[in-house]
Structure formats: structure tokens, C-alpha cells
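General statements about sequence and structure are easier to judge against a single worked case. When preparing material for the folding task, we compiled for one chain both its residues and its C-alpha cells. The amino acid sequence and the C-alpha cells for this protein are reproduced below:
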Amino acid sequence: MDQDSDKLSAALTGIAVAAASHVIRANNDTNDRLDATQADTRAVRRELRELKSNGHIVRDTLPHVADLLSGIALATQELPQATLLPNLSTVSRPSLISMLTSAVSNFQWPPKPGSYTANGYIESAGELTSLGLIFTFEEVRAFLHGLVGSASPDSASKLQTFYSAQGLAQAIISKSYTAAQWVSIWKSVLSGGGLAGTPMLTVLAGPYTASFLAGARVNAMNVKFNFTGAVNAGTQLAKVAFPPLVNIPAVVVSSGVFQVDNVTGSEFTITNRVALNNGDTPTAAILLGSCDAAS
């Protein structure tokens, strides 16, 4: 009986040892896997820290960079979704003219940055957001592409390009025109003679009336007067305004009855050289020549 007990004990001990060995091997394998997982985790954390501190990533998260990219992203077409009927809606191009008219004068440097949530969502757009957006507009892209030459410019050409841009900027800054006047100026320049537009007649107080005859233009006009009373020589009778020119124009009156005074880049005054009486109906034939360069 003791021998049987010993045999059973030995058998059970062997089984226990074998089971223990298997458990130890399994435990070692588990520990190895855990160690490998921990090593992988540490490596991932290290790479994440390095990535987070990478200069390229840091610069991309700066508000000004995010503002510019956000503006470009605004032009992104929405991804289509499955619907029963076709979705005909598209992203509409925003109209910025009225908003830019008031916003541009308040631009500053450094540009006012936008604000973002911790996960990068926009809370308020910055000044560069509108710049990024207009880069996507067709006319802006077309204009910038139009500046491209057929070959790389030499040093002198690049300097001339810089000087021309500087000269244009300085000439513009020195003026104080309205938006409508700038439109008129560009039309005048592009017309080749600076004479685009229609004149406007303002009759000054006196015993007379005046009006343009048919076909009046900035460069040639007939002003018909109708006097209902006597007027002494040297009386300012009317003013003629026209779209502003860069330089003071040359104005000539063909009639000996009238002369022009107070000529500026946007108006002149018609004055009578001789005394006029009730019933007189003289006509002032006026030619206006621009002194602006045609090219």
C-alpha cells in the first residue's frame, strides 16, 4: 500500500512538475510579450514626442499658418453623399468686396491671428484666412499666372520688375481717390488717351441757363448758353467735371466769347470774356486733351 502511495505521489509530482514547467513557459512567454508591448509603447510614445516637437509640425500649428490654410480649405467642394435624388447644391463663392472695403484699412502686422480649439477647430478666423481664400479665386489665380514669363528673367529684368512694382505702389499711396475715381483712372489709362467717361455740367447762379449739346464727350463738348439778363465780363458761368486724370489736361475754347479757368485734373470753369445781354445764346465749343501718357 505504501508502494502504491509512493507511486501515486511520484506520478502526481511528475504531473505537477510538468504542469508547472508549462505554466512557467507560458508565463515567460506572456512576460516576453508584455515586455515587447511595453517596448513598442515606449517607442510609439518616443516617436509621438519627437513628432510633436518636430519643427515642421510646430510651424503648421501656428495660428497664422493655420489661418492661411483654413482660407484655402474654404474653397473645398463638399464630398457627395448617397441620396435618393441627385444633390445639385455646390459650394457658393462668397462675395468679399463689401467686407474687404472696411476690413483692409484695419489690416496690421503681424496679422491678427485666428483662434482655435485644442483639437484644431476654428473658433474665429484670422486676417490671413481671407488671403488664403482669395488665392483660390479664378481672377486672382489668372492674374498671378499672367505675371509668369516665357523664361527665367536675368538680374536686370528682376530689378526692373521690382522697381515697377515699387513705383506703382508709391504712386498709388500718394493719391487720395475714391473707388469710383480709381475705376475711372484705370479706364482712362487703358483707353490710350485718358479721355474715357462723360462730362458733368454744373450751372452757377445767374440770369442764364446752359446745357450740353448732343454728343458731348470728355475730349469734345459744346455748351449752349441762353441768357435772360445782362452779365458782366469775367463772370464764372459754369463748371465742367470729368473723370479724374493723373495730370492737368489742356483745355481750349474755340469761341472768343468764353475762356476756361481753374483747370484741375477733374474739372474746369467756363468764364465769359465779354459782357453778355438778355437774349444772347452763345455756344462754348471746348476741346480737352489729356497730358497723361498713352502707354
